[in-house]
Amino acid sequence: MRSAVEYANVCLDRRRCVIHLPDYLSPTVNMSTQEAQGHLISPEMPAVFDGMKLAAVATVLYVIVRLLNLKSPTAPPDLTYQDTPLNRFLLKSSPLLTKDYIPPLLWGKSGHLQTALYGKLGRVNSPHPHGQRKYLPMPDGATATFDLFEPLADHLTGDDVTMVICPGIGNHSEKHYVRTFVDYSQRQGYRCAVLNHLGALPNIELTSPRMFTYGCTWEFSAMVSHIKKTFPETQLVVVGFSLGGNIVCKYLGENHANQERVLCGVSLCQGYSALRAQETFFQWDQCRRFYNFLMADNMKKIILAHRRSLFTGSSSKMTDADLGHLFTATSLTQIDDNIMRKFHGYRSLKEYYEKESCVHYIHNVDVPLLLVNSADDPLVHNSLLTIPRTLAEKKQNTVFALTLHGGHLGFFEGAVLFPQPLTWMDKVIVEYANTICQWEKRKQPCGGAQGDETECSEDSS
């Protein structure tokens, strides 16, 4: 019997090749050349595939545009304030508050990417300012630490001005965003004192079974008192980032004496009320539940790094059961309820959040106050922003600035892709502080009643 190859008839032309096999090999598939042509891909099929490719590309581009928020416009901050001489002077002297904040074109309009870049890098090419670490013993046996950085230039007013800075949750003076801001402030003539949250520095052991909490002002107050005593001529600018914003506003409002020698205060990206914020942290809107998990995981690492100091010893308020709850915690609320509130003996989570939130104290602040938030901050729900807006509507000294973009402590600036080392946030704090310093400097020769000071300041401007 001849092989199938011997019987094969190979027909070649410019478009195709058809192989004819004998009937006994493929009786069911044997067909004429014309019939086989009908089973080949029709000429219209490549056009269909091209259309599908274009549709896929268009879909991907649409998703990218939506995720990166590329169609969102740039705009100046939305300002809430009263029409007062100080605020008019502020708007004349602080162009950053009245001009568009322009983030990097390709990714800067995404609050998630702004927040992620801040969380991952802090800042780009951050400097390394040199300071002295100070240790302050506390009445309960804890040891507060802060870093002191001297100015690198004369202040524009010629005065001695110190920025007392409270970083964000679990942060300290060695964080990149803090180093960048400190270096910039030093070069503008400011001395800087940066609180290291109790337990945040990995190389500093706790000396008592307590670490920083959401609104404890003890360590910050001790740092400010030390600065006032060491530099009796200095005036203060109080600055707080995120959780630090809550602490500095609470500190200023707790006791009117805390506002002595304070020129102004600045709070950035805080949530104002932990009790109202806790409900929003369990929502998946803006991936807030995911951020909650990440921050809780970071807090667990900080607590476990000081496990020996916090969970052993006769003075410890923690138990093995609390440690077990810590291991299984997946949210900040669970950690606050099982660990953090017990450092100060709060009976419930509700009591802890109410007592530690600045919303109950901030209305007592009489010094000029700038509150800054971003509308696309994935950590601070928009419902919380009614607090600073209402305050600015009622208090003459308060200005609330809400940017369209910036994320959480991001506020990066840049042309297209690569951000600049200095952010809009860094520059606006110093610009606001400079303006208040100039306002106070121009008031000094006037003296007299408040109305006389107002008239003199307006004439000077």
Structure, explained:
It contains 17 helices and 11 strands. The chain is α/β, with parallel strands linked by helices. The longest helix has 24 residues, at 45-68. Helix 6 (176-187) links the parallel strand 6 and strand 7 (191-196). Residues 1-38 and 448-453 have low confidence and may be disordered. It is globular. The termini are far apart. It has 3 domains: 4-32, no CATH class; 73-273 and 357-432, Rossmann fold; 283-343, no CATH class. The strands form 2 sheets. Strands 3-11-10-9-8-6-7-5-4 form a 9-stranded mixed sheet, sandwiched between helices. Strands 1-2 form a two-stranded antiparallel sheet.
Write a brief structural summary.
The protein is α/β, with parallel strands linked by helices. It has 17 helices and eleven strands.
Helix content: 40-55%
Number of domains: 3
For CATH, the homologous superfamily of the largest domain is named as Alpha/Beta hydrolase fold, catalytic domain
Q: Which spans have pLDDT < 50 for at least 5 consecutive residues? A: 1-38, 448-453
Question: Which term fits the overall shape?
Answer: globular
Radius of gyration: 31 Å
CATH T-level topology of the largest domain:
Rossmann fold
Mean pLDDT: 87
Please summarize the sheet with the most strands. Answer: 9 strands, mixed
Please report which band the strand proportion falls in: under 5%, 5-15%, 15-25%, 25-35%, 35-45% or over 45%. Answer: 5-15%
User: What is the CATH level 1 assignment of the largest domain?
Assistant: Alpha Beta
Task: Give helix and strand order, one letter per element, not per position.
Answer: HEEHHEHHEEEHEHEHEHHHHHHEHEHH
CATH architecture of the largest domain: 3-Layer(aba) Sandwich
Strand order of the largest sheet: 3-11-10-9-8-6-7-5-4
What is the CA-CA span between the terminal residues?
111 Å
